[in-house]
Specification:
The structure is a homodimer.
Chain A: E1 3-6, E2 10-16, E3 19-26, H1 28-36, E4 42-49, H2 58-62, E5 65-66, E6 70-73, E7 79-84, E8 93-98, E9 118-121, H3 126-136, E10 141-145, H4 148-153, H5 155-162, E11 167-171, H6 172-179, H7 184-192, E12 198-202, E13 208-212, E14 216-219, H8 233-248, H9 253-270, H10 277-280, H11 284-296, H12 305-311
Helix pairs in contact in A: 1-8, 3-5, 6-7, 8-9, 9-11
Chain lengths: 312, 312
């Protein structure tokens, strides 16, 4: 029982209506591990410079996150991103992107990280994603994330890796752009046709849609009136989802629905603080308490008795 | 047990990717009654010309819809709208709007229509809506629909009638425009502050959000891969919602959630055919069958056992 994630380990400077942080820990692999480690053992494969503040991720190591696969480039600088959010915080406005050591990232999965039951290919060049997948073989259940940049600029590579994974996670805009389908269910079915057995569409404030050949799941987001920092929400969602699936050990429709609900709850903590701190301080019990509130908003006990009685 | 609806009775020419219809029956009051009459007795208050094809709504009379409150103007022409849908069908492109006899609509609620338990003020000038509400007094539970045009051009009148109703139904764009709040829950709470006890936000393909002072409900739309004609979906949703509430006879949180789920199912039939025909031919049993499929996509039986067992 373990998960290997390949992706960015970064430092982020972020500004939103709620405040700002400077050079705080971030990156898709770290946000993923932050959430997944609530459920499972996580191996991170990434790269940083020797400026990386390892003391700040000590709590992740305590939660079972293995940083041995994070290469440290002497004299190198860690991937740095600066962005801000306005209005409904639907998307970030990038102010600076310094790839630094991440520019030459050549992921090498070694040791125990090769034996994980799940592999998460975070948002990196799809050619690299496919390289990792091929290098590891098909034994792990592979989940992919991507972004519009690769859809527009590396479409063939992206189609190649989509064909090689078990599940793809995309947001509404991405899946519409990838498939040319406006209807999200039709778009998800189109991606199923490209190879994966499961397609998950992140709809932001509107929650999540998941489609397999046998079932559809649609779950609302946890209702939140105030968002501090949405950075990493998608990776936290993916981490919690894969973490739950790994912990459950089954992939039936009921387990998927529960995993999606769990992931929505975990991701809701992510957006309530900057960097990793919305999730860093919480326990499984905190998430379960939120789940109890969350399910109240959409669970319906019993039938539609007011009309079904009359229908006989 | 009955509902009075005040609104437009129209003829629509509609074009979508699925085909087109010419001068078919439409209008917000008719779409509302079409859905509400699955559950309850409905009185329509409206106006038409003597060109109105009453033979086509005979099935509605058979379902208990009372057209006595629909004034027929001799020599007048019925409200006509022509529009088309493109892309994701999120909004209609109007090609012609001929108000005709609707221009001078002065709703007069008389007879049995005055004693209904529910009053639906469909999308007409908010000044007229308030006039009707005041004329009838507060005994009915009043539900209001509106649109961006009135938010922009008759804001004070709209605020006046919002303060005088029990529930307001708006779509995402409308409630953001009305309140200046991007976050839909915050926007709904802002409208609660204007007077109503319940605020319902229609999110189109993303389903519905409802907020009271005591609870929040968020339910997905019925997943549909193909939409024929979204005209009247909002009014069908409102009709089904109010119909269910009238039939149930209670307004507790559980009943509201069931009413919202029922309304999502009924509205899903509306968009699968042109004009009123998606709902015209169905029975309560058909909707209940769809509800059984619908609830599969978001209902979760039991707890998050994969993690809750470990949390003890």
């Amino acid at each position: 029982m373990a998960i290997t994630v390949v992706g960015s380990v970064a430092l982020d400077s972020i500004q939103s209506a709620a405040g700002s942080v400077e050079r705080e820990i971030g990156g898709s692999a770290v946000h993923f591990a932050n959430a997944a480690s609530l459920c499972s053992k996580v191996h991170i494969v990434g790269v940083v410079g020797d400026d990386y503040p390892f003391e700040r991720i000590r709590y992740l190591k305590d939660r079972g996150v293995d940083f041995d696969g994070v290469e440290i480039i002497p004299g190198g600088k860690t991937f740095f991103w600066k962005g801000r959010y306005e209005g409904d915080m639907g998307s970030a406005i990038s102010e600076a992107t310094e790839l630094n050591v991440f520019q030459d990232f050549a992921p090498a999965v070694t040791g125990a990280a090769r034996d994980s039951r799940f592999l998460f290919l975070a948002n990196i060049h799809p050619g690299l994603q496919l390289h990792v997948r091929k290098n590891l073989g098909d034994s792990a259940f592979a989940v992919l994330d991507s972004m519009n940049y690769w859809i527009e600029n590396a479409r063939e590579d992206l189609l190649g890796v989509i064909a090689a994974v078990d599940a793809a996670i995309l947001n509404s805009d991405e899946i519409r752009s990838l498939t040319g389908e406006n209807n999200l269910i039709a778009a998800a079915r189109a991606v199923l046709g490209m190879g994966p057995s499961y397609v998950i569409v992140k709809k932001g404030e509107h929650g999540v849609l998941a489609v397999s050949n046998d079932w559809i799941a649609v779950l609302p987001a946890v209702p939140l009136e105030k968002i501090v920092d949405p950075t990493g929400a998608g990776d936290s969602f993916a981490g919690a989802l894969v973490g739950y699936l790994d912990r459950a050990g089954t992939l039936d429709a009921v387990t998927w629905r529960k995993a999606l609900a769990w992931a929505n709850c975990v991701a809701s903590f992510n957006v309530q603080d900057f960097s990793v701190y919305g999730i860093a301080g919480i326990t499984v019990r905190d998430v379960l308490r939120r789940y109890d509130e969350y399910r109240e908003v959409f669970q319906i006990e019993g039938g539609l008795d007011a009309v079904s009685n009359a229908a006989g």
